[in-house]
């Protein structure tokens, strides 16, 4: 404990603070880019899954296998797979890119199920009305299904992204300079583990708590009604 | 030649036969009413016509040309000429009244927005909802929603309008406002195929009444015949039951 107190001034030096702030930025960027891209790709995957007919069969198969496989592989293993796969083809790929790709692959699989659940929550009659008016599948999706399932999709999708802030710690294993990696470095430099990882914990909390509050707020806003009105209230809020 | 002709139409869910060879004709400007007990297949006919339920046999002809329900292009062409109004209105919950009415003509039929909006305004005035352009469906009563649904169907400029029990989900005091709208359409010469339980209304607007039971047509003829002098026992039984109410 005495050692810890003794280390305090040196630990919170400007250089270290900048280092930690940068690492936080990396963690947030990994989460934001990976999860957002994954979320958008997940829409495509769900669109594949809902493609009818014989011609759509390979698309449906791709979508089902993708989700079933990647939801069953630990994220760390996905990260290693991506690392070795990309390095086999591109020798100078940055570790950050590799980590983003891994997060994106994983987020796609998880949010695809969230999106599918949202789409399934739209009343069949709404889709029939669109079909009877000759809406294409694309128009039905963009004009009717997505706007109506948004309130069902968004809260769990945000919750997923928020929880992923802490799961990005796993990419420190491949050497991305994010928060946990920097923590390990400082610890190796001789700083007390309690001090280092205590600080790191607080920083993770500081990043994810406001976001999860925002997610909760979003859920409350969207929950009472699936109509446009709730979205208007949201816009005006 | 008939405007719409249904020949020996059959439809089944798995082993359950819903339609077992139905024949039906409509000429231009005619209002035909489908009546009969629940589960007799009335609504299924409309769903099959719109390509929402697959036929398992028989033919549908529009102006003598058969519709091939296995071909998407053919189904789309048929939907271009008909419009349906549903029992539960099925207005798009995420769109206001005006957008509900204009979205298909603008996005699907690629007509000019200004022209479509002007027409939509006229249609909404016609169904008595000129003041509600920017209301959302869940802010309207059932009767108002159903009138928007009728305006939405008319905005598609259909040759044939299909009405599927459009007053069945409404509170009794809201039924008349919807029936008045349909009366107006009949007076304008709109070709309509109506599924209804409103017998007094059917008697008044229909030029022909088709009574169905268990997936087949039991009897058809002018309203006078069906309601006053039914020729089959089944029709007599059904008409007797509903008119006693």
Q: Could you please describe the fold and organization of this structure?
A:
- The complex is a heterodimer of chains A (237) and B (245).
- Chain A has 237 residues and is an all-alpha fold.
- Chain A has ten helices and no strands.
- Chain A has one domain (2-236): MetI-like (MetI-like fold, Orthogonal Bundle).
- In chain A, helix 2 runs antiparallel to helix 3 (57-70), helix 2 packs antiparallel against helix 7 (137-167) and helix 6 packs antiparallel against helix 7.
- Chain A starts with a helix and ends with a helix.
- The mean pLDDT of chain A is 89.
- Chain B is α/β, with parallel strands linked by helices.
- Chain B has a single domain, classed as 3-Layer(aba) Sandwich (Rossmann fold), CATH 3.40.50.
- Chain B is built from nine helices and ten strands.
- In chain B, helix 3 packs across helix 4, helix 3 runs parallel beside helix 5 and helix 4 (113-126) crosses helix 5 (142-155).
- Chain B is globular, with a radius of gyration of 18 Å.
- Chain B starts with a strand and ends with a helix.
- Chain A binds chain B through residues 125-126, 128-136, 139, 143-144, 147-148, 225-229, 231, and chain B through 50-52, 76, 79-80, 83-84, 86, 88, 90-96, 103-104, 107-108, 136-139, 156.
């Amino acid at each position: 404990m005495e050692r810890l107190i003794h280390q305090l001034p040196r630990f919170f030096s400007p250089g270290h603070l900048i280092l930690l702030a940068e690492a936080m930025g990396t963690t947030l960027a990994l989460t934001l880019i990976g999860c957002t891209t994954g979320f958008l790709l997940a829409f495509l995957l769900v669109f594949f899954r809902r493609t009818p007919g014989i011609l759509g069969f390979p698309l449906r198969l791709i979508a089902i296998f993708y989700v079933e496989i990647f939801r069953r592989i630990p994220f760390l293993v996905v990260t290693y797979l991506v690392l070795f796969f990309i390095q086999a083809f591109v020798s100078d790929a940055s570790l950050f890119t590799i980590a983003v790709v891994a997060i994106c692959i994983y987020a796609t699989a998880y949010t695809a199920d969230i999106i599918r659940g949202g789409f399934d929550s739209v009343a069949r009659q709404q889709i029939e009305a669109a079909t009877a008016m000759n809406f294409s599948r694309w128009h039905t999706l963009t004009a009717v299904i997505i706007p109506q399932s948004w309130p069902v999709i968004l809260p769990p999708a945000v919750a997923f992204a928020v929880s992923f802030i802490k799961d990005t710690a796993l990419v420190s294993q491949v050497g991305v300079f994010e928060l946990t990696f920097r923590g390990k470095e400082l610890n190796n430099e001789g700083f007390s583990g309690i001090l280092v990882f205590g600080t790191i914990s607080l920083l993770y909390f500081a990043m994810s708590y406001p976001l999860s509050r925002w997610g909760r707020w979003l859920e409350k806003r969207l929950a009472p009604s699936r109509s446009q009105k709730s979205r208007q209230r949201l816009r005006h809020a | 030649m008939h405007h719409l002709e249904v020949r020996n139409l059959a439809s089944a869910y798995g082993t359950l036969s819903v339609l077992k060879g139905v024949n039906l004709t409509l000429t231009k400007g005619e209002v035909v009413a489908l009546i009969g007990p629940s589960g007799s297949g009335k609504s299924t006919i409309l769903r099959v016509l719109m390509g929402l339920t697959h036929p398992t046999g028989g033919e549908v002809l529009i102006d003598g040309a058969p519709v091939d329900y296995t071909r998407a292009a053919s189904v789309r062409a048929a939907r271009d000429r008909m419009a349906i109004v549903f029992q539960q209105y099925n207005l798009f919950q995420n769109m206001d009244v005006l957008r509900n009415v204009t979205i298909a003509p603008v996005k699907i039929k690629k007509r000019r927005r200004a022209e479509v909006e002007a027409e939509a305004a006229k249609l909404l005035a016609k169904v008595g909802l000129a003041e509600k352009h920017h209301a959302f469906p869940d802010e309207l009563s059932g009767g108002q929603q159903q009138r928007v649904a009728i305006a939405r169907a008319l905005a598609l400029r259909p040759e044939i309008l299909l009405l599927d029990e459009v007053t069945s989900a409404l509170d009794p005091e809201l039924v008349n406002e919807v029936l008045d709208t349909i009366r107006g359409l009949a007076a304008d010469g709109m070709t309509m195929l109506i599924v209804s339980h409103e017998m007094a209304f059917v008697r008044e607007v229909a030029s022909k009444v088709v009574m169905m039971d268990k997936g087949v047509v039991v009897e058809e003829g002018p309203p006078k015949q069906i309601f006053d002098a039914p020729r089959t026992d089944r029709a007599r039984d059904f008409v007797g039951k509903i008119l006693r109410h």
